[in-house]
Design goal:
Blueprint (H helix, E strand, L loop, with lengths): L3 H4 L7 E6 L3 H5 L1 H10 L6 E6 L7 H5 L4 E9 L2 E9 L2 E6 L4 H6 L8 E4 L22 H15 L9 E4 L6 H15 L4 H10 L1 E2 L1 E5 L2 E3 L5 H8 L7 E3 L4 E5 L17 E4 L3 H24 L5 H5 L2 H15 L7 H15 L8 H4 L3 H20 L4 H14 L4 E2 L2 E6 L2 E5 L3 H10 L5 H9 L2 H4 L9 H15 L1 H9 L2
Helix pairs in contact: 6-7, 10-12, 10-13, 10-15, 10-16, 12-21, 15-16, 16-20, 18-20, 20-21
């Protein structure tokens, strides 16, 4: 079988984007969008990938002339969807360590407009031990500071040579944190007030929110996919069709970064918080509030839950009656997002394990459900029925006195499953699951401020409602309890 670069080639364009990170997500999200924008004639720019860490290899990029395939698989408007695109917008792939001079030369490109990064949540950090003299500095913000200083020097601080920074690391206010680190290095390394002013006045640090599941190289089915494609591709990347990029900036950059004009789902805003809240409350909240009950009803992956009429009805009530009304965006937007989430949950190509989602469910309930619970309670002056049940379902899932090797062992119909969470959470259930009644256990659990950051027993009727749900689950099983819960 021929290789991808024997059948496809690329048309060189000006490099407009330097991308810190060569991983699956950036290639399946950012580079995909840029490639589509090039095809539609609204961007006409290439990407230079730079590897920001000292380990790993770029040999596969060189062997394939930086060409690769992104295969998007899932459902769109309820129908199965598969898109295979050969991405041709990556012009270079450089190592910041092994190709240091070539990497720094990118800073002097007149055509450069953007810096994109995904250096993981731990990448945007300030380390006072980092040094300007290193080639390159150790941290990503250190590398970026020296890169920007090279550009500032090369163009004598020209106002029109500032860049737009688009970090996609999964931390809140990623752009703000990145700018803060850069400014600290400017002071530490004594790079001067003129450079600092150029950074603040002529470079735009955007905070972003990204949403697309990228599953990467499909090792188990790569040979089969390549057979269908008709070529070998060792950089094959896979993901879901859904994609959302929310870009927060106090300056309007929509005219300078136009993939939205090629049909890509990009939102430019001065406040991304409502969109972050929408994702956490609807997508993550739907998972956390339903999968533990689903697991105890005999399901193992998310898609199975979506196909179970009883679980689906419970999820509908949770999402559309208790979560969506609390999202601080126009309701049609929240409803449309929820419907898109359902399609993603029903992706026939992704087997999303319920036990994987169950990891650290107590902290997830606190972060993803409790804010929605509070808003419902404040509005209606009573606990929301279905989210309260999810609290009881969590407790039913965690109920066990078998703590072995740091893992709590639960039981589902004679089958043992592992419960993984903070050791204090696991110790609480191991010590109290069998010695307390449902009411006593709920009261003790809900009143533990270490778990929730507040005393949940202060919500009137919450303990009695959750205790009744837990008693029902214990007496009749999860399936019968859910059936009674959603009965009209």
């Amino acid at each position: 079988m021929k290789k991808i670069n024997e059948l496809y080639s690329r048309k060189p364009r000006e490099i407009k984007v330097v991308q810190f990170g060569e991983g699956n997500f950036l290639r399946g999200f950012v580079d995909y969008m840029i490639d589509v924008a090039n095809e539609k004639g609204v961007f006409n720019g290439d990407v230079a990938i730079v590897k920001p860490i000292p380990f790993g290899s770029l040999e596969r990029f060189a062997a394939q002339d930086n060409l690769y395939t992104i295969s998007l698989r899932g459902r769109v408007d309820g129908e199965p969807y598969v898109e295979n695109r050969v991405v041709t917008c990556v012009q270079k792939a450089l190592d910041t360590y092994g190709d240091y001079d070539a990497y720094m030369a990118l800073a002097r490109l007149d055509s450069l407009q953007f810096v994109v990064s995904n250096t993981t949540e731990a990448g945007i950090v300030y380390d006072e031990s980092d040094q300007f003299a290193l080639t390159p500095p150790n941290t990503y913000p250190g590398k970026l500071t020296k890169f920007l200083y090279e550009r500032f020097t090369a163009f004598n601080g020209a106002a029109d040579k500032g860049l737009i920074l688009l970090p996609v690391e999964l931390i809140e206010d990623n752009g703000g944190h990145l700018k803060e680190c850069v400014l600290k290095y400017i002071d530490q390394w004594k790079l001067g007030d003129a450079f600092k002013a150029w950074i603040c006045e002529h470079n735009i640090f955007c905070s972003t929110l990204v949403d697309r599941i990228i599953t990467g190289y499909p090792r188990a089915e790569a040979a089969q996919i390549c057979e269908k494609l008709g070529y070998e591709d060792e950089l094959l990347d896979t993901g879901e069709p859904f994609a959302l990029w929310v870009i927060e900036s106090q300056q309007d950059i929509s005219g300078r970064f136009p993939p939205d004009k090629a049909g890509m789902h990009i939102v430019f805003t001065k406040n991304q918080k409502p969109y972050r809240e929408r994702k956490v409350r609807i997508l993550n909240g739907a998972h956390t509030s339903s999968v533990l009950a689903g697991y105890l009803m005999g399901k193992n992956i998310v898609r199975e839950c979506m196909h179970d009429p009883l679980i689906r009805k419970m999820m509908d009530k949770i999402v559309f009656e208790e979560i969506v009304p609390t999202v601080k965006l126009p309701q049609p937007e929240a409803v449309d997002f929820a419907k898109a989430v359902y399609e993603r949950f029903d992706n026939p190509f992704v087997d999303h394990s319920l036990l994987a989602i169950s990891l650290n469910s107590v902290s997830k309930w606190r972060a993803r459900i409790l804010p929605t619970f509070r808003d419902n309670y404040a509005k209606n002056q009573k606990p929301p029925k279905y989210l309260t049940f999810s609290f009881a379902a969590l407790m039913a899932f965690y109920t066990s006195d078998r703590l072995e090797n740091g893992v709590l062992l639960g039981n589902r119909g004679g089958e043992t499953y592992e419960i993984k969470d903070d050791r204090k959470v696991l110790a609480f259930f191991a010590e109290n699951s069998k010695s307390m009644t449902a009411g006593e256990l709920v009261k003790a659990f809900a009143s533990n401020t270490d778990f929730w950051g507040e005393d949940l027993t202060s919500y009137d009727s919450f303990v009695s409602m959750a205790a009744a749900d837990l008693e029902d689950i214990r007496a009749n099983g999860m399936t019968a309890a859910v059936e009674a819960l959603v009965k009209d």
